[in-house]
Amino acid sequence: MTFTEEKLVHVNAYTRKDGTHVKEHYRGISSNAASSFAPEQNDENLWATTTIPEEKKNPLQEALDKIFKRDSGGINFNPSSNLVLQGGVSTTNFDFSNVLSALGSIAGIAVNVGLGALKTATLLNQAYWTANKTFIEKLKPQMVNEVKKLKETLKLSETVEKMHLEKLTNTKNQEEYSKLYETFIKQKELNTKNKDTIAKIEYAVEHNNFETAMDEIKNFQADNSTAQKNYPAIQMSNPMPSPYMNTSVSPDWSSVGRQEIKGAANNLLRTGLHKYPQKEKAILDFGMEKLSEVFPETYELWKASRSGFVENPEYIMKNGRLLSSTSQLPPNLQNFVSNKLYSQLGVHDAKGIVLRSDSTLSQTIVHSSEFKQFLRKNVHRMLRGETVNGSVNFANLFHDTHYALGHTDIIDMYIDSQGNIHAKVIDTYDFNKDDPLFLVEWAHNLQDLRRLKNYFIVCDIIITPQDLEHL
Fold it and tell me: How many CB atoms lie within 10 A of CB 350?
């Protein structure tokens, strides 16, 4: 017998007349109605049989099983056809929101993973165009890891695709079949496109073509963002774990598909580990240590925060001094720092560090492009004898000041009789709420849990006429 067009049919486990037990499996059969027949009536060697292996399920698999739960029985299905169930099947109402919610969550995870990859690729692209080979060498492994995360999201989506097909193959409901078929085709097309895009990203990163990698990551995000918007977002009592969130706690799916909360999937990566602050801290510690050689000031300030100034006394002693209260500041600074603490943290007093003008952080500030621009903009006022106050946003992602300080105040900037420029750069070490970057959200959670210590920073700035010539 020849099979010219083959369909896929799921066969439940059964016992033959001779007592032999047959596991559940798929079989390929001809789409010609005249050639369909029962297995007991034909030579079983004619069947192409694939036995479904029994696998140990992880928490994600169990959670998805609750959504893609199969009905008993089966139907013939050819994924490439426009087959529609006809006659003898159930047409009762069913809840399709669970499936849509799961697909929306998966796409949301992909979008968030893409954000991290895009940020790293942007840094590498800047380093490439400034010929900073050292930075590229140190940060490229992180980019490789970001590509790995993209692959893991694809693997997760492909797992859901298989379960989607399983449910589609076994449904007896006319309405459910029609909707499942439509979403299955869309998901399969998205997975195919994602696989191709990730391959392009990986190739571009391998050959240091970071601009192309950025473009392809943007395409990846756009495709998955569109898919995410096509499905209702969901709110879960516990988040759906992404493949690289190694949590052993099974999610509670009692409310899945019942609430459509905009942005829930987008917040999944940001808040998914808040119940496990030790993991958030471990990941942030690891990242900071990896970047310590590139951004040493950022790492030193982080160590002071995570340990309450215990881990780096040498850095503080070498560069300045530790204060236990704002009351130890000069009178002209006490009110300013106290008010800044209150506006940022809701407290009037805290510990802090005062760094000398020859400290590594003060020198890093002086040589930053943002500070130089502020200086050029206000030098004419100082030459007229004015004292300048203002602020600077260190926006250069390639510079240590962006991560160590961010947005700072510059006060009491003036020129003395010897031509020296004086200033004070003041900041509070804290992490803003609702920052779009999920790593900052993690740090803010640790801050709220008192696992990171907030403090103030005062950097003394003195620029001599000789130093000014070299700026």
Answer: 21
What are the strands of the beta sheet with 388-393, ordered from one edge? Answer: 320-323, 352-355, 455-463, 421-429, 407-415, 388-393
166 and 216: one domain? yes
For the cut 60, the answer to whether the pLDDT of residue 361 exceeds it is yes
pLDDT in tens, 309-326: 999 899 999 999 999 999
319 and 443 co-located in one domain: yes
Q: Is residue 277 part of a domain?
A: no
Does residue 202 sit in the same domain as residue 314?
Answer: no
Over the range 218-244, which residues count as b (16 or more CB within 10 Å of their CB) and which as e?
ebbbebbbebbeebbbbbbeebbbbbe
Cβ-contact 224, 107 below 8 angstroms: yes
Q: Which residue has the higher pLDDT, 352 or 109?
A: 352
33 in a structural domain: yes
Instruction: Please report the sign of the dihedral spanned by the C-alpha atoms of residue 9, residue 171, residue 154, residue 152.
Output: negative
Mean pLDDT score, 443-456: 92
pTM above 0.70, yes or no: no
Same-domain status, 112 and 4:
no
Cα separation of 139 and 141, whole Å? 6
**How many structural domains comprise the chain?**
3
**Coil, strand or helix: which one is 392?**
strand
Range of the domain at 205: 97-272
CB proximity list for 233: less than 8 A, separation 6 or greater: 101, 104, 105, 108, 260, 261, 262, 263, 264, 265, 266
Task: Show Cβ contacts of residue 374 under 8 Å, excluding neighbours closer than 6 positions.
Answer: 390, 392, 410
Does residue 267 sit in the same domain as residue 299? no
* pLDDT tens per residue, range 186-202: 888 888 999 999 999 99
Q: Does residue 319 sit in the same domain as residue 462?
A: yes
Q: Decide if 258 is inside a domain.
A: yes
Q: Which two tokens stand for residue 380?
A: 């004419």
